[in-house]
Amino acid sequence: MSDATNLGKDPEDYIEELVKSGRYENRDAALKEAVRLLAFKEQRLAELNAALARGLAESEAGLGTPIEEVMAEFEARYAERMKKRSA
């Protein structure tokens, strides 16, 4: 398939190229896959936005761990790992 990511030309031509290459059985199969992928992307975006909103709400409510504590734990783990490597 030639440059599968080039959508600069007419999308109908692109779909036709995908069908001719054998990648998809027909135009409907290609369009069905495109819609499936768009639906997946939109669902994932909604999930990520919801997770972000929850995280921000928890942070504003003081439910998170202060960055100083997180960094201190990270630095301690890193120091321990480096110590084991040099041993």
UniProtKB/TrEMBL annotation:
**Coiled coil as UniProt keyword:** yes
One GO-annotated biological process of the protein: regulation of DNA-templated transcription
Give the record's keywords alphabetically. Coiled coil, Toxin-antitoxin system
**Signal peptide span per the entry?**
none
What does the record list as coiled-coil region(s)? 31-58
Q: Does the keyword Coiled coil apply?
A: yes
Q: Which family does it belong to?
A: Belongs to the ParD antitoxin family.
Checking NCBIfam families in the record gives: antidote_CC2985
Its protein name is: Type II toxin-antitoxin system ParD family antitoxin
Organism field: Aliirhizobium smilacinae
